[in-house]
Structure formats: structure tokens, C-alpha cells
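In response to reviewer comment 3 from the previous cycle, which asked for concrete evidence that the modeling workflow produces usable outputs, we include below a single protein chain processed end to end. The sequence was submitted unchanged, and the resulting C-alpha cells are shown without manual editing.
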Amino acid sequence: MKDPKRMMASTTLVSEALVVAFAALVAMRLSPVGMQTALVTGGALALACLLCAGLLRSRAGYVLGSLLQVAVLAGGFWVPEMFFAGGMFVLLWVAALVIGTRIERERAEVARKLEGS
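The workflow returned the following C-alpha cells.
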């Protein structure tokens, strides 16, 4: 069976990559940063989200994912709407970690009970 925490966290990161990429396009028009800066920064952040989704096999992936949440939230200083979008992704990230861990723990408990029967 697949790891629920990893599945939920990777889904969050991939979705976040899409939102960040589109936010970079918005930042070109609505923020004082230049077009090149907006595209390079947004593209790098979106790519980092995708790469991090692949690193979730180890603890380092979760640490990097948490740092990326802060970076996306900080994007609100250039595009204020990103405070809202980044905040939503922070909530999704925390939910993925908490709920995924709970599901893993419950699965392990059920497996122990089935072994004991």
C-alpha cells in the first residue's frame, strides 16, 4: 500500500508548483519587479516544488517542503494575493503531514492487531 503522507504531500507540492507558475505570470504585470525577475523566480520556485515532491522518500524532502511553504508565502510581498494562496498551501501542507501521519499510525495499529489474531 502507498504511503498516505507522501501522496498527500506530493499532491500539495505539485499543485503548488502550478499555482506558483501562474502567479509568476501575474507578477509580471502587477508587481514592480521586472518580467525576467518574475519569470525566473517563479519558475525556479515551481521547479523546486516539483523536485521536492520527488525527494519525499526521505526526511530531507519534508524539511525542504516546509521551507518552500515559507518561500511561497513570502511571494506575497511581490504579489499580495500570494499571501492568501501561500497561506492555503501552508494549511494543506500541515494537513498532509498531520493526517498522513495519523493514517500511517492507524494502519500500523491495524496490522499489529491482525498479526496478533
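Residues 61 and 88 are 20 Å apart (CA to CA). We consider this sufficient to address the reviewer's concern, and the full set will be provided in the supplementary archive.
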